[in-house]
Design goal:
The protein has 174 residues and is an alpha+beta fold. It folds into two domains: 40 residues, no CATH class; 125 residues, TATA-Binding Protein, CATH 3.30.310. Helix content is 47%, strand content 26%. The protein is built from four helices and seven strands. Strands 1, 2, 3, 4, 5, 6 and 7 form a seven-stranded antiparallel sheet that branches. A hairpin with a 5-residue loop joins strand 1 and strand 2. Helix 2 packs across helix 3 and helix 3 packs antiparallel against helix 4. The protein is elongated. The termini are far apart.
């Protein structure tokens, strides 16, 4: 009788195991998304390693910022093409093929999607993320300079980690 109960438990556990296999992938995905939010990267990822983010800036401005970011990172732009939704940039850096897609969501909003491929199977999520973060820094510098809240030197400080540079002025001038 005891042997029969043990056998039933073993069979039940073996029957459940295939169903639990996907739980690890789901848990890892949830944990990695939570880690990104907790660290403040504000970059999202697809399950296959593609990084993406939406900026409140027109497509031409995001394209210029992306090209500047790639140049700062030492990544050479090889080709640019128009797509149905915006632009596609193909670049190369130290054994990595970089793809950047810019999609115009509205006239003032652009979505950037980056993939850094190293070989056939490996995708470098860190490099894809850094391209987006460097693009964000360039956009922050441009905004600080354009709205008159800083000089080019002050805007450069934004790129070095200062989030807001505000010009000193009497309260009545604002």
């Amino acid at each position: 009788m005891e042997y029969k109960r043990s056998s039933i438990r073993v069979v039940a556990l073996l029957g459940i195991l295939p169903l639990l296999n996907g739980c690890a992938a789901v848990a890892l995905t949830v944990l990695s998304v939570g880690a990104g939010v907790a660290t403040g990267t504000s970059v999202s990822y697809t399950l296959d390693g593609v990084a993406y983010r939406t900026f409140t800036a027109p497509l031409p401005q995001v394209e210029t910022a992306t090209r500047t970011a790639l140049d700062k990172m030492g990544i050479k732009v090889e080709a640019t093409a128009k797509t149905e939704q915006g632009k596609a940039i193909k670049a190369i850096g130290n054994e990595r093929d970089i793809e950047v897609d810019l999609e115009m969501v509205t006239a003032k909003t652009t979505r950037i999607r980056t993939v850094a491929k190293q070989g056939v199977f490996f995708k470098d999520r860190a490099t894809a993320t850094e391209i987006i973060l460097q693009t964000e820094k360039v956009l922050d510098m441009d905004v600080a300079t354009a709205i008159g809240h800083g000089t080019r030197d002050a805007a450069k400080a934004v790129g070095e980690g200062v989030k807001r540079v505000v010009k000193s002025a009497p309260d009545d001038e604002w």
